What does this fold into?
Amino acid sequence: GCVTCLDHDEHYILTFPNGYGRQVDALIALSILTVPWIELGGECSINCSKTGYNASIVFHTKPFYGGKKHRITAEIFSPNDKKPFCSIEGEWNGVMYAKYSTGENAVFIDTKKMPTIKKKVRKLEDQDDFESRCLWKDVTYNLKIRDIDAATAAKH
It folds into this structure.
């Protein structure tokens, strides 16, 4: 993906984690299903060619037995440095904590306290045929009215 910060004239290239649909827990032996959740897993990177700053991020999948969901660790590097000046750990959908090379520890971000920003999306009639919302509009509509057969047909 590409993100441009117009206020700072910075352009970032980033990779994304894998997404997994999960349902069963360690209680699988008892055939008890849990509430489904989306899990992210894998290594990602963020690089800014203008500044040279970069980050290495790991989304940790929940172990089969024990462990926590939604864990993340990351390291942020200054240009040309081999050692990170900041390490991050926590939950990608909760609180993440920063530990700086100076020894300072702080909350990096609390995603639950962040405001929700409404997406800006062009009207369907202004979208090209293969833009996501236009392409999937019939599937979305049929899912909203709970017509699974029609949604499946539209998906094909």
